[in-house]
Each structure stands twice: as structure tokens, then as C-alpha cells.
Write a structure and sequence with these properties.
globular, two-stranded antiparallel sheet, 7 helices
Length: 239
């Protein structure tokens, strides 16, 4: 066994940014009342998650070998073989994402994209129609994340191969004959950071804190309590 570079820097930056944004958005949603001005940052974080997913999809097509979706182990036979090995002590190494993490990544990416889409629809005046679907994807994301963390912990205990740190330094133990990637891709990582900072700056600059409205690409999204505003307008009209 030998450790080789498997995950490039852009993939690792995406991984941790993705995780932190979801945790932040989820905690705000669960601890802050939706009538509070602070709640808008849950929605802004959700939009940033959507931006990250789009960037990850691009890198999943044109990126390094193990960042590409084509390297994901998604066949049912791979999943069955992986879990059999996990409990039997089979020491087979998956050079990139193992079957469990491949499916977890796919589910979390899809969930995050759907959270962004349903969130936009909710802030466009269709809150009641998409609120349940939005919560469904949030719970799916959370459950998948918890299972993923538990899976990494169990894998680490079973195989003692340091996989829990692979998304920090990018290296994993591989079988002989399997090759890693040639470099960390720092320039692509820098571009990713600039795009993330640029997207975040664009969103915050176009968010009107007094009106609780976000103007994005010619469209106005209401990040406040739509129902409350509608009730206030009706009361004023009745008076």
C-alpha cells in the first residue's frame, strides 16, 4: 500500500465550503424565526450552495481523474461489494470515491441543487406550494450527511487507512498499480475561490436589508415573510 494524491485542491475546497454552507443554512433555519432579518442569510447561503453545485458539476466533467463523475462507483454491484468488504474485513482500496461516498456525494449535490431551486420558487411568491418539498430535500441532505459521516467513521475503524483525512491533504492509500493525479491544481483552486467570493459579493450587494429583497439577474426575490406582508397589505386596504 502507498499513499498517493487523489483529491485535487479545488475538490477539497468545494467539499468543505459545501459542508459549512449547509451547516450554516440549516442552523439558521432551525434556530432563527423566519420573520427575523437574520433569516435572510439562510436563503443567501442556500443560493451560494446552488452556485457551488454548478461549479462542482463543471469540475465533475472537466476536472482531474478522481474529481470527475465518471470515476464514481455507482453500480449496485460495487455498493454490495463495498459493504460486504466493510463488515468482512476485505482490504480492497477504492482509488477515488468508494461506492458509499459516491452515492452520498450524488444525493447531496442533487439535494442542494433542489434546495436552491425550491428556495427561489418559495421567494418568488410560491412559498406554500414548495415549502414541503424544500423541507424534504433539506432532511434528505441531513440524513445523507449523517450517514456519510458515520460511514467514514466506521470505515476508519475497520480499515485504519486514514481516509477521514483524505479531504484535508488529498492523499489516500491505494493498491499497487493504481495511479494518483499529477498535481493539486492551485490555479483552478484560486479561480474557484474568486468565483465563490464574487458570487457572495454579488448576492450581498444586491440584497436590500430594509425591504428584505434580493435583486438577481433582473428578478426580485422576497427574503422576508411574504405571508406577513400580504396580511399587512390586506389590513391597510380594509382600513
Amino acid at each position: 500500500m502507498r499513499k498517493q494524491l487523489i483529491y485535487d485542491l479545488p475538490t477539497r475546497i468545494f467539499h468543505w465550503s459545501f459542508a459549512l454552507l449547509f451547516v450554516f443554512a440549516f442552523m439558521v433555519a432551525k434556530t432563527i424565526d423566519d420573520e427575523s432579518p437574520i433569516f435572510a442569510y439562510h436563503m443567501l447561503a442556500g443560493l451560494m450552495l446552488g452556485v457551488l453545485v454548478i461549479l462542482r458539476i463543471v469540475w465533475g466533467v472537466i476536472g482531474t481523474r478522481y474529481a470527475r463523475f465518471s470515476s464514481f462507483a455507482l453500480y449496485p454491484t460495487d455498493v454490495i461489494e463495498y459493504f460486504k468488504g466493510l463488515f468482512s474485513g476485505d482490504k480492497k482500496r477504492w482509488s477515488g470515491h468508494n461506492p458509499a461516498s459516491s452515492w452520498a456525494a450524488l444525493i447531496m449535490l442533487t439535494s442542494a441543487l433542489m434546495l436552491a431551486i425550491t428556495g427561489i420558487l418559495m421567494t418568488s411568491g410560491h412559498k406554500e406550494a414548495f415549502e414541503d418539498l424544500h423541507e424534504l430535500f433539506a432532511n434528505l441532505f441531513l440524513v445523507t450527511t449523517l450517514l456519510h459521516v458515520a460511514g467514514v467513521f466506521l470505515h476508519s475503524l475497520r480499515h485504519v487507512d486514514g481516509i477521514a483525512f483524505s479531504m484535508l491533504h488529498g492523499k489516500k492509500e491505494t493498491d499497487h498499480g493504481l495511479s494518483g493525479i499529477s498535481g493539486h491544481k492551485p490555479m483552478v483552486a484560486l479561480l474557484l475561490i474568486l468565483l465563490m467570493v464574487g458570487s457572495g459579493t454579488y448576492l450581498t450587494k444586491n440584497y436590500d436589508t430594509s425591504a428584505h429583497e434580493l435583486k438577481i439577474f433582473g428578478k426580485t426575490l422576497s427574503l422576508g415573510d411574504n405571508e406577513g406582508k400580504e396580511n399587512e397589505s390586506e389590513n391597510e386596504h380594509d382600513d
